[in-house]
Amino acid sequence: MTITAFETRQPTVFDSFEERIEQLKQSELYREFLPVGHLAADPGHTMYQGRKIEVWCSNDYLGMSQNPEVIRAQLASTALHGTGTGGSRNIAGTSTTHVELERRLAAWHGKERALTFSSGYVANFETLSTLIAAIDDMVVFSDSLNHRSLIEGIIRSGATKEVFAHNDLVDLEEKLARYAPDRPKLIVFESVYSMDGDVSPASAIFDLAEKYQALTFLDETHSIGVRGATGAGLSEELDDHRATFVQGVFGKAIGTVGGYVAGPDAALDYVRSHAPGFIFTTAMPQAAMDATLRSLELVQAGTGMRAELNRKTALMKAELRSRDIDFIDADSHLVPVMVPGGERVRRVSRALLEKHDIYVQPINFPSVARGGERFRVTVGPFRTEAQITHFAASMQQCLHEN
């Protein structure tokens, strides 16, 4: 049959996706991805459309992904072992470096075992969903601002869930007290919450866990490398190691890729044996793990880096404050600059990029509540005082003009 030019296109299943994407754009929730090329020779900078620009929203808090020693470790390991493992952890993918890294991570956190995963998200999701489902009648108590990976892991487990108000010890205790003392319980929370930069009352939560016989799962994602004498996180800073499980990542302050969970030997051996996202995925390359090992060594000895990170963060806050720029002055290295309005935060972001060679990504719903749009600014220890002043002055100008 001949199709004429007058015949209309038949609807397809993909039309609904086009409609939903258009709805995202109309509601100001469509996400734009900026293609960049980070520069190893110039930490905190990237190439964009032939221009070198400053990146002020990276999770590479210490600039370790550009550290020459870490780069050399990965290059040397790649030359020796190749670019991939060729298998999952249970089929030829467990390298000697995986084993050594997990041993060091367990020792770092004072736990019996550690298990590495392809990302922090996978570490949270697979560990929580597998462990919780294995414990009959478990009740999970989850902070209301927990990361999506924690939330999804809990949901996947099918367990009863209680969401307590953010960092609210009274609400947490009220919810814990509703359940019988002998019913299995797990409290899931973070050490530093990335969108507001605030810190959890970890020791007080551990006290409640002991009082109500609950296990604890502490996500140290945004504390690893930047808090504690050796960078082991908030627990180390507080000298309080009562968390049953500690989760951490390599893709932020360590500057490589992957995530891990440290905790009791039997529990993590069970995860190793049952978690689909661990068993049925290709293991991370040994070269990446060797880079992680070297970075870990540098971070553990990096007291000076952490001190400089804190000094530069304080300087940024002072510069913003002097210009009456609204930001959350939290007790962490994260500086949320508040720019309410989905369209406005994007306009300011575009102006910073096009007029001042500054890249900072807009944060909007659902990462934050509507009306709470912001920039999550990070200030690496490698930043100069002149760069910090330039950033604050540029932000002031763009906020005024938009």
In short:
The protein has 15 helices and 14 strands. The chain has 402 residues and is of the alpha/beta class. It is an enzyme of class 2 (transferase).
Report strand %: 15-25%
Instruction: Estimate the mean pLDDT confidence.
Output: 95
Number of separate helices: 15
What's the count of strands? 14
Residue share in helices?
40-55%
Main β-sheet, spatial strand arrangement: 4-10-9-8-7-5-6
Parts with pLDDT < 50 across at least 5 consecutive residues = none
Secondary structure category: alpha/beta
Instruction: Report how far the terminal alpha carbons are from each other.
Output: 57 Å
Radius of gyration: 23 Å
Element order: H for helix, E for strand: HEEEHHHEHEHEHEHEHEEHHHHEHEEEH
Biggest sheet character: 7 strands, mixed
Question: How would you sum up the global shape?
Answer: globular
Family: Belongs to the class-II pyridoxal-phosphate-dependent aminotransferase family.
EC number: 2.3.1.47
Cofactor: pyridoxal 5'-phosphate
GO molecular function: 5-aminolevulinate synthase activity; 8-amino-7-oxononanoate synthase activity; pyridoxal phosphate binding
